[in-house]
Thioredoxin-like [2Fe-2S] ferredoxin
Amino acid sequence: MLEIKICVGSSCHLKGSYNVINEFQHLIEEKALHDKIDIKATFCMKQCQKNGVAVEVNNEIFGVLPEAAEEFFKNVILPKV
Ligand code: FES
């Protein structure tokens, strides 16, 4: 199971955490990956300076903008599933 943590702290919230979560959930549903990917919301990961919402995948933290969430899912998350 691949665990993805998405920051919903105040800074990331303003950058669109919920849009990123919605996009990921939509893609997981579309590709029937429920049993392979687990999404969790988390509080501030001390990565507020990143350009985008802090998203942790396999202990690596990325900055993901809502408009780039689908691309991120395809390029970074899918290869790890
Ligand atoms: S609010 Fe998301 S890393 Fe700080």
Notes: Residues 7, 9-12, 44-48, 54 surround FE2/S2 (inorganic) cluster (CB under 6 Å). The helical segments are 10-15, 17-30, 69-77. The beta strands are 2-7, 37-42, 53-57, 60-64.
